Amino acid sequence: MSKVTGPRREEVALLAGVSVPYYVRLEQGRAANVSDEVLGAIDWEDKARETVAFMRLDAGRHPGDKELATLIGELWMRSADFRRLWAEHDVRERSNGVVRVDHPLVGELVLDYQSLKVGDDPDQVLVTYLAEPGSPSDEGLRFLSSWHGDPSGPDPDTVGLDQRL
């Protein structure tokens, strides 16, 4: 894999007008009341860079994948941002990070994830997800797991989240 290119945490924080510790909390999904301006300055660029780097890795693993090649070609033709990021030649695994899931019943879940390779096949991975203990995401996951024995569960339109837990 190549070294990670692009701005460092300190540079991104400076460009977004936030402190480095605050930016780290944003990366970890632990910051509250984040403005749209800060999110626009930080999250899109980071996720786009990460996604393109993973796409480059996947293209190297599957050079005969015509659908992937077509997607890369379409993105190259339509997006200056994609061309810029692809030209960085960054190759990166998605081994850990934070994912946000908008669940229709419990709302947004902010989860840390860790990907672990299984055997010698790079396409076989075990992914674990973990919410910060005591967080709204943790409460939401606990509520969802309580449905294990009863798939019908409570009626989400008549029971508030605090009552469901």
TrEMBL record:
<protein>
    <recommendedName>
        <fullName>MmyB-like transcription regulator ligand binding domain-containing protein</fullName>
    </recommendedName>
</protein>
<dbReference type="InterPro" id="IPR041413">
    <property type="entry name" value="MLTR_LBD"/>
</dbReference>
<feature type="region of interest" description="Disordered">
    <location>
        <begin position="145"/>
        <end position="165"/>
    </location>
</feature>
<feature type="domain" description="MmyB-like transcription regulator ligand binding">
    <location>
        <begin position="43"/>
        <end position="143"/>
    </location>
</feature>
<dbReference type="Pfam" id="PF17765">
    <property type="entry name" value="MLTR_LBD"/>
</dbReference>
